[in-house]
């Protein structure tokens, strides 16, 4: 069976049927069995199907998300050399991104998932090494930056997660609904004064009600009555025009100081 699976991978490009389902199964079998190099070749084919693929084939390419979830399951304890498979993906994806065979956005997405899987399968050092690799890539686009931040948080690197999201906030790239959770994280890991200082800067970016309510809670829980009164006043300023106009909460509310 292993040799048959290797043959499926090797002959996939040259065959006319382009049996993607067979390639998926062969790649998964080889990966789980420890045949890392051949499985990586199969994964590359699955993530980058030939442009001239037979459109009449009944076997359609799966979405990248589906492929990644199949080839990167949460529990890999029964896999042979799962660590080699995961680290092999990191190396290959880096090569594909460098040569332009995969977009930076997709590379960050794949590597972020790999880091999480390494963490979940107790390859902690490898997970942190993968995060270092991701950090060398372009994170200008908000989506890859968020994936990276989430992976850092899940793998226990809270400092890195805060660094990424705080940078996004200061550069006005952080999604509005991520602002309040960031303030909570800053308060928990860097202290309430740090959260209050960052929140003051954030008023130039958003007066989103959820963010203001979060700052009220942070101030109140810390026993800072003066700060709590200030944030309550700001929250009321946002709510007043909405009572008369019926406007929805959100970042479009005019900012006032």
Helix-strand blueprint:
Blueprint: H1 2-11, H2 20-33, H3 36-47, H4 64-71, H5 82-99, H6 104-120, H7 124-135, H8 142-154, H9 158-170, H10 179-190, H11 192-202, H12 209-221, H13 225-245
Helix pairs in contact: 1-2, 2-3, 3-5, 5-6, 6-7, 6-8, 8-9, 9-10, 10-11, 10-12, 12-13
Textual characterization of the structure:
- By secondary structure, the chain is mainly alpha-helical.
- It has 13 helices and no strands.
- The chain has helices at residues 2-11, 20-33, 36-47, 64-71, 82-99, 104-120, 124-135, 142-154, 158-170, 179-190, 192-202, 209-221, 225-245.
- Helix 1 crosses helix 2 (20-33) and helix 5 runs antiparallel to helix 6 (104-120).
- It is elongated and about 70 Å long.
- The termini are far apart.
- 37% of the residues are buried.
- The model is unreliable at 50-59 and 245-257 (pLDDT under 50).
Concise description?
The chain is an all-alpha fold and 257 residues long. Helices cover 68% and strands 0% of the residues.
